[in-house]
Amino acid sequence: MSASVLLEAPYFKSTRDFLKASHLSSQSYVLSIVSLPGHYAASASSPANTIDIFDKNTLQGVETLSGHDISTTSLHAIENIPGISGPSLMSSGKDGSVKIWDSRSKSHSIKMTNLGASRPLLCCDVSPDGLTIAAGTEMQGEDALILYWDPRQPATPLRTHSSTHSDDITVVSFAQTNSGLQHNTLLSASSDGLVSISNADEADEDEAVLQVGNWGCSISQAGWTYSSSVPQIWAASDMETFSTWSHENNVLVTGGEDAKINVWPTLSPSPSDDDAMDVDPKPRKRNLDTSDEQDGKRLRR
Q: What is the pTM assigned to this prediction?
């Protein structure tokens, strides 16, 4: 796995003229934004920990979900989950739970937990078929865990991977069905500086980890890109704001520490293939150099 430097594109433009703006129901920071059919969802920082829903046309707040008892850490718009018809909203929190929300009742319809062994969760994702949910935990003691649930049996994880990373797990992301990768291939990234690709269906963790790359710095965001014949990975180091690209409306939606939600006009085309990290398409067993792993951990601290 090789990394390329991400540079500002020559066609990049900046603007101060947003199309419309709104505010969270609380005076908290905006932590994340996702696009739902007809709405945006935005999570608020502590002490509110709520999730606000905004109308896409007017950007007016239409409802507020309770979020998590301790810090809402991630949001996802999901297309497919057993027992729920149509797109839904999924969130994770430091209360140790992953929730699937029912907008009609303003409450969660499914709640994944780890009874008796709860750990703060920093990220989550659902497999394309909706039958596996993964979440990454904070580092506790010597372990940072990737937990896997079947949403039809939400009380206890199906399996746990405990040695993929050695610090907070900040990203878990399933590959798309048509990516050319095997079923339930999971990307994970961490404050230890590692980007890993695993088979989420494999209970034996030594067999589950397929590929590992060491960026050498704490990773806060990462994901897949499919702009070429071979799936690629992008990653970002620690940042203080979040943005998401909305293809259907051709606008950029941003949120930050001022509690504001802004909608902006188109600024630039999609990223080029040169702005991503290549993924080695040949599966191999994990072969980490101990010093490399420790270097990533020291940079985090």
A: 0.75
